[in-house]
Amino acid sequence: MPIIDFHTHLDDRWFDTPLLSEDDFIAGMDRCGIDIACVFTLRGFYEDCRIHNEKLLDRAARHPERLLPFMTVDPRFGRAAIDELERCIAIKRFYGVKFHPWIQSFAPSSVKSTMVELLKRAAEAKLPVLFHDGTPPYATTYQIAACARWVPEATIVLGHAGLSDYILAAAQLIRDVPNLYGCLCGPRTADVRHLVDIAGADKLLFGSDFGLSDWMVIDDRLDSVRCAGLSDEIQQKILFDNAGKLLRLVTV
Ligand SMILES: [Zn+2]
Predict the structure, then answer these.
(1) Do β-strands 4-9 and 36-40 pair in parallel, antiparallel, or remain unpaired?
(2) How far apart are the CA of 209 and the centre of ligand 1, in A?
(3) What angle do CA 180, 164, 46 make, to 5 degrees?
(4) Residue pair 28/20 in contact by the 8 Å Cβ criterion
(5) Residues 122-169: pLDDT tens digits?
(6) What is the residue extent of each domain of the chain?
(7) Considering only the top CATH level, what class is 4-246?
(8) Which candidate, 1, 101, 133, 242, has a CA 20 to 30 Å from the CA of 161?
(9) Ligand 1 (single-atom ion) residues, CB below 5 Å
(10) Which of 232, 205, 209 has the alpha carbon at shortest distance from 219?
(11) For 190-209, how does the pLDDT look when each residue is reduced to its tens digit (9 = 90+)?
(12) 99 alpha carbon to ligand 1 midpoint, in Å?
């Protein structure tokens, strides 16, 4: 069964900690049977977004079929953030947008007018927008769901489907907010089962956070899906089909 990993980080270091080279990243994907990975920056959440959007494109360029880059911008900069988003959209090599309100230090409501504008433009470009979620004070699952309600035409993905503390909320919000999806990057086996039972299987995606650590995290996350007692049909949706539709790799 082909697999899309909707949540990984492809960067050369996290502060003083060196991360995987592109070759080691691809080797980890191969080892765990991951065909395609959505790749995000890490240092770009702390430093100049434009520089790191470009670095990410470079790092992904040798594997254009397998590594799908997501841009990031810093909504605290207002107009400059919108300009950078538009610049990246115009390049036509990004497959989505990633925000990490917790690391990027913004509460979505404190930058609402800029965020609404960013989400509208992402929606026009048909790009999904994945937010880190599951951690206060800036990225509770409720705060990210609010962004989805502000711009119903945008596709918003909870990057951790509640992570651990907000699983119950995530399940209900994914069920109730039509344009809100959940990436199963963090929820454990019983939580995955709960998310499927409450939210259904059509808006859940597989993700691992691979790149922050080695390939073992992929197998760990895959086990959380594979051991949840789900039918093959549901696993196929979670591991490939739902992500393929959001990334427009397969026809809806
Ligand atoms: Zn992550």
Answers:
(1) parallel
(2) 5
(3) 75
(4) yes
(5) 999 999 999 999 999 999 999 999 999 999 999 999 999 999 999 999
(6) 4-246
(7) alpha beta
(8) 1
(9) 209
(10) 209
(11) 999 999 999 999 999 999 99
(12) 10
Q: If pLDDT is split at 50, 70 and 90, which confidence band does 252 have?
A: low
Distance CA 234, CA 225 (A): 10
How is residue 80 written in tokens?
């400059």
- Ligand 1 centroid distance, CA of 160 (Å): 8
Pairing assessment for the beta strands 17-18 and 13-14 based on DSSP bridges: antiparallel
Q: 230 C-alpha to center of ligand 1: Å?
A: 25
Distance 132 CA to ligand 1 centre (A): 7
Stated pTM of the model: 0.97
Distance (Å, whole) CA 31 – CA 25: 10
The string of pLDDT tens digits covering residues 80-135 is 999 999 999 999 999 999 999 999 999 999 999 999 999 999 999 999 999 999 99
Cα 186 to ligand 1 centroid, rounded to whole Å = 10
CA of 122 to the centre of ligand 1 (A): 20
Query: Rounded to the nearest whole angstrom, what is the distance from the C-alpha of residue 155 to the centroid of ligand 1?
Result: 18
Which amino acid is located at 44 in the chain?
G
CA 150 – ligand 1 centroid, Å = 23
Q: Per-residue pLDDT for 64 more than 80? A: yes
Residue that the structure tokens 């393929």 belong to = 244
